[in-house]
Amino acid sequence: MQLIPFSLYYNSFFFRRHRVKKTHTPCTHKKMQTFSFADKYTEVGVIEEAEYQRLVEAQDKETGERYLCRQISLEEYTTKVCDLCKTDITLSTQVASPFFATVHEATYEAKSKKVFVLMEDFPMGTLNDYLYSLPEDEFLPEQTCWCLLACLVEAICQLHEPSRMKDIEHRFTRTIIHRYIMPRRIFMVSETRCKLADVGWSRDLLSMEGKMGYIQGTLQYYAPELIINEGYGREVDIFALGCTMYEVMMKRVLVEDNPEEPMEALKKIHLPLIITTYSKKLVNLVSSMLNPDPKKRPTAFEMRTIPEIANILKGEVSA
Q1: What gap in Å lies between CA 192 and CA 316, rounded to an integer?
Q2: At a CB cut-off of 8 Å and minimum separation 6, what does 28 contact?
Q3: Where would one find coiled-coil regions in this protein (predicted)?
Q4: Euclidean distance between CA atoms 251 and 254, whole angstroms
């Protein structure tokens, strides 16, 4: 079996010639609310904290209901970027799907320039929490990997190709690139079911402002075309899904966190992957998602038809 290093593709003609025009279609169905978060909710715990956003657990002061709250600071960004973020978050509140974390409501505080997005609570936590809570020598069964993959493939398919999802009543009205798929953005519903979160506000605000160097941690799931800033499309989500599934199977990240030289970390990947504890079909599928040539990665819609995934989705939809 021939191993193909990423370095063979890094300076390829493909990355020099393919550029994807980025477009944005505003959503005009309804406006974001403007109530004060502190007036309505009590912050009861911090789950995650980063430079420009926080994930906390919040409790409704009136009903006692608990929610996850993503708090995003827009203080350092232009009006254009702020408006774009608010528009995308508004879009996320209008879609109902069992494969996405349900957004309860969202508000923008003009004084602090912060957005607060209230989502359903997940007692099991994130996929990251679940994976690394397992005993060191315990790995997920293959069928569990297929089940989690099926949930994520369906979610990505609904983002990438909404026009083809005719059986979904409340679907997205335009193609969305998530750009932030990773275990910490996936929440566990059960041991075999998960939901994708942060849909609609997953764009990297820092990169839009020319501050890509400040984004750390997420580079472990970035496709090469995203890192070298050659223009990108929805294929970046498939690459991130491949990185995520590798982590699901191996309980370790595929790409080292090297924000100074991210491409050097990617060059260490050799394809196809060699993982003897899972079937060749699953391993080869994950390998195909990691192809350095974006056009050679499978689409979510193509993966949706794989028997192992299609059969699981039939059960999910009918449940």
Answers
A1: 11
A2: none
A3: none
A4: 9
Contact between 103 and 119 (Cβ < 8 Å): yes
d(CA 272, CA 154): 24
pLDDT tens digit sequence for 162-182: 878 766 655 666 778 888 899
Containing 212, the helix (H) or strand (E) segment is none
Q: What is the CATH number of the domain that holds 74?
A: 3.30.200.20
Whether residues 60 and 173 fall in one domain: no
Question: Of 95-99, 156-160, 230-234, where does the model show the most confidence?
Answer: 156-160
Domain shared by 241 and 146, yes or no: yes
Domain boundary among 97, 119, 141: 119
What distances in angstroms separate CA 290 from CA 221, 246, 296, one per listed residue? 10, 10, 9
Q: Does residue 15 sit within a domain?
A: no
Q: Is the pLDDT of residue 293 over 60?
A: yes
User: What are 63-75's pLDDT values in tens digits?
Assistant: 999 999 999 888 8
Q: What pairs with residue 96 in β-bridges?
A: none
Residues 102 and 153 in one domain: no
Q: Are residues 115 and 204 in the same domain?
A: no
E-strand spans in the chain?
4-5, 41-49, 53-60, 66-73, 103-109, 114-120, 186-190, 193-196, 270-271
Q: 80 is in which domain, residue-wise? A: 37-119
Statement to judge: residues 151 and 75 lie in one domain: no
CA angle 127, 128, 132 (to 5 degrees): 115
- Helix residue spans in 228-279 (DSSP H): 235-250, 262-266
Q: Measure the CA–CA gap between 293 and 297, rounded to whole angstroms.
A: 7
The enclosing H or E element of 184 equals none
Residues 6+ apart with CB under 8 A from 289: 238, 239, 241, 242, 245, 297, 298
Judge whether 32 lies within some domain.
no
**Total structural domains in the chain?**
2
For residues 59 and 177, state if they share a domain: no
Q: Model confidence over 87-105: pLDDT tens digits?
A: 777 777 777 789 999 989 9
Residue 57, both tokens: 């657990």
